[in-house]
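Researcher: Let's walk through a ligand-bound prediction step by step. First, I give you the protein sequence. Second, the SMILES string for zinc ion. Third, you return the three-dimensional complex as structure tokens. Ready?
Model: Ready.
Researcher: Here are steps one and two:
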Amino acid sequence: MSYKTLILDPGHGGQDPGACAGGAIESLLNARVCHRIQAITNFFIPTILTRVYNDPNETELADRVKQATQYDLFISVHHNAATDTSAKGLEIYHYPGSEPGILLAKYCYDNILHYSEAAGIVRSGRGLKTKDLYVINQTPCPAILIEVGFMTNQLELWQMQQEKTIVTTAYAVAMAVLQFIGK
Ligand SMILES: [Zn+2]
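Model: Step three, the predicted complex:
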């Protein structure tokens, strides 16, 4: 399979800010990571974002997901929240039983933990998970959803707002995409 486009979906946006904690807004964090991923992957595979920063005319999620074809890769980026403020760590979701999806998720998961450790970022992993999430079950292509970490965890939130963490996470995901498409 040769993939034609990488679709990056910064979760939420428009009227939906996503999680809010400690003064940070999830939709903006998601967008920061996605813009950084695009800056790298665009050199290797045409990369589009499903939305831009705070555009009030952003399309609905259903329309964004409909843009995907079987020749695309689809990565949705989110930041997590929990009532338990000690909850922490990276999780990546893929559609149950999707072999390419599992592989892409595994590359991203391993890379994010590996590059974070190398950069001195304290980060734990909660593993690969499956869930029947709308964004990954409505796409005909390999699709994953990354929960970068917990905004409700004070240390993780502080870290995830640092440029170093954004760049490291984006670089790790970009390298995973290149591994996956064999470039
Ligand atoms: Zn979210």
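Researcher: And what stands out?
Model: The chain has a mean pLDDT of 90. Residues 11-12, 18, 26, 78 surround zinc ion (CB under 6 Å).
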